[in-house]
Amino acid sequence: xxxxxxxxxxxxxxxxxxxxxxxxxxxxxxxxxxxxxxxxxxxxxxxxxxxxxxxxxxxxxxxxxxxxxxxxxxxxxxxxxxxxxxxxxxxxxxxxxxxxxxxxxxxxxxxxxxxxxxxxxxxxxxxxxxxxxxxxxxxxxxxxxxxxxxxxxxxxxxxxxxxxxxxxxxxxxxxxxxxxxxxxxxxxxxxxxxxxxxxxxxxxxxxxxxxxxxxxxxxxxxxxxxxxxxxxxxxxxxxxxxxxxxxxxxxxxxxxxxxxxxxxxxxxxxxxxxxxxxxxxxxxxxxxxxxxxxxxxxxxxxxxxxxxxxxxxxxxxxxxxxxxxxxxxxxxxxxxxxxxxxxxxxxxx
Length: 349
Ligand code: TXA
Ligand code: MG
Known about the structure:
This protein is of the alpha/beta class and 349 residues long.
């Protein structure tokens, strides 16, 4: 297969009315435009144009069996791409616009390129003002995975998008850093009872409270690889090997592992909580994300931290869980850290 590479550089569009209009025209013409959402930057294409959607996979180097989420300007458009159930409307009412994606039966108008051949489609209504303006101006459902090269951490700034995709896509709308910083929560409403496919910006507890039921979890770490399409256990990886330390004694084990690596003559980077900085030797390159108690703060800074340590060309990256891995956004943080990790050390061992 020959792959066509655009020679031109990717245009950076300001997130003003003119930039949004230009981006909308590109989408209508079947071109690729990256845009900010409240979670991460998405790589958008006209969702009902199969050739445009194929370009997403080519630009990202993404395997064709990984389905893409369709973005809508408002919940009222759901019928254009999916067959919503009463539960879908209930969740849409509470959480849209916002960082929740719903997996629903697809309408035949949605090309199989979007859904990776599945009869279901992932849909969400983002709350970011620029995303919303773009969706309205284009008048289109927009298919958009995260705007990174396949396997790299999701982009939370326009610069991250350029670092991965410059020259491979038509344009990026620069709306500044994203706020949530981790991808949307994905709930599958096509199984017997609602299933959490990916923890994310909306907590599982909030969804359970809205529905008054227990949410089943399809975790690739519990159920083996490929519990859901595209849910590969290794994902979001830095180029530098990352060791994650979990469990109750993680803080002291982190200090121990850092000392061991420094003794071996390695350059060490740590994705660090503020409360750990004082225990880390000066030789360590730190990317501070926040505090244990403030999971939202760490979520918004995690992917930039990972990318910054890659740029610092350290030999190894070490981290411990950044918040309670069992609750709220801490669950999404724990999930992304485990996917990024090349090795997980449980401090209870
Ligand atoms: O926050 C987000 O969700 C961001 C922004 C851009 O909206 N998008 C995002 O897309 O994270 P992506 O492609 O990186 O992750 C989408 C994942 C897929 O890998 C797959 O696991 C799941 O969503 N997905 C999409 N459609 C699905 C379907 N029909 N059935 C099951 N899983 C699906
Ligand atoms: Mg992604």
